[in-house]
Amino acid sequence: MKLSRGADEKTAWGHCAAHVLRIGWPGAMAACLLLTVAACSAAAPGSAQASRGASPAGGSGLPSPAPAETSPAAAVAANPGCRGAETIPVATAAELRRALADARPGQTIVLRPGIYQGNFTATTSGTPGAPISLCGSRSAVLDGGDVRHGYVVHLDRASWWRLSGFTVQNGQKGVVADGVTHDLITGLLVHSIGDEGIHLREFSSDNVVSHCVVRQTGLRKAFFGEGIYVGSAHHNWCKYTGCRPDTSDRNVIAYNDIADTTAENIDIKEGTTGGTIVGNHLDGTGMATSAATAWVNVKGNHWTITGNFGTSSEGDGFQVHQVYPGWGLGNVFSHNHAAVHGPGYGIYVQNRRLGTVVSCSNVVTSAVAGFSNVACVAG
């Protein structure tokens, strides 16, 4: 979707990032939620439409990369997330693999502009006081080379990482985080992916995915082409989480720009609890009706969905489903703006017994079926 970020949003998330670095995750998470929800609620409905027209991306196309700068200092200047006490500049795929293998807490791996061919895995964790960073400009491109195979970036039990600024393309999956906590994935461009763009999985909790642009997913199989995906479907629990629910909990999906996904822009699986979806810009253009009929499908428990802006759906704007007993319960929708331009509801709830709270603060337009199939509540 064609969106520039508002000043209030930037300010809120800037303060949030400062809290993350200064006081560690638990306190910073609460600060993030307060700041992002406040900024989002303060935005006028018309302001999102105005900012859409100002985008450099043009439709659901990809933003143009910034001119290439070759020095590590230039990369740091272009991406504040590249700053660190110990920076490790890399310029080739071999150097990047070596830096990831040797990574230790407090290091910042700086990607110089260029193409890094292959798939890349991190397995070492940072610490609350010394996270590990991998950063670069959009001109630093991690290219998996084949949408049928591989994870372009895999955080494999690697917690306290920050991925920032660079481009991820041409893999079966873009960014996959397995068994991680307190990771920050921010400002990436993820596109031309066989299945899902960004996936938090295998008990990955207390992470943030923010300010990413996700485009052109589902090139291998439309049914698996989600933009951002949290958890695992129950029929995969034995594959990934020892036949237990994939409790990827308390994750925050914030201020991302997601379009041209064949499946949902954001898919929240059964087994997950207590996450937040805030301030995202969602577009159903390019969605396959065989794979999805809403921008967001929530099947977990007690998620907060607030201040998101969506347009153009093949069915509904937002959906809640129960696909496994005990899940799909107690989710809350408020201050969302849904320009559906489709046959469904702004917010569809599979069953009133799920206890979904739909606030009257949501704004729904161009939804043939109406505002919601459940009555809204004040607030």
Molecular structure report:
Helices cover 17% and strands 30% of the residues. It has helices at residues 7-23, 25-42, 45-53, 72-78, 93-102, 237-240; strands spanning 86-90, 107-111, 114-117, 120-122, 132-136, 140-143, 151-156, 161-164, 167-169, 173-178, 184-186, 189-191, 198-201, 208-210, 213-215, 228-230, 252-254, 257-258, 266-268, 276-278, 281-283, 296-298, 304-306, 309-311, 318-320, 332-334, 337-342, 345-349, 357-358, 363-367, 370-372. Strand 1, helix 5 and strand 2 (107-111) form a beta-alpha-beta unit. The two termini are 28 Å apart.
List keywords for this structure.
single chain, 379 residues, alpha/beta, Pectate Lyase C-like, eleven-stranded parallel sheet, ten-stranded parallel sheet, 6 helices, 31 strands, 17% helix, 30% strand, globular, disordered N terminus
**CATH fold-level label:** Pectate Lyase C-like
Strand order of the largest sheet: 1-2-5-8-11-14-17-20-23-26-29
Number of strands: 31
Morphology call: globular
Largest sheet: 11 strands, parallel
Q: Briefly note the structural class of the backbone.
A: alpha/beta
- Regarding CATH, which class? Mainly Beta
Mean pLDDT: 86
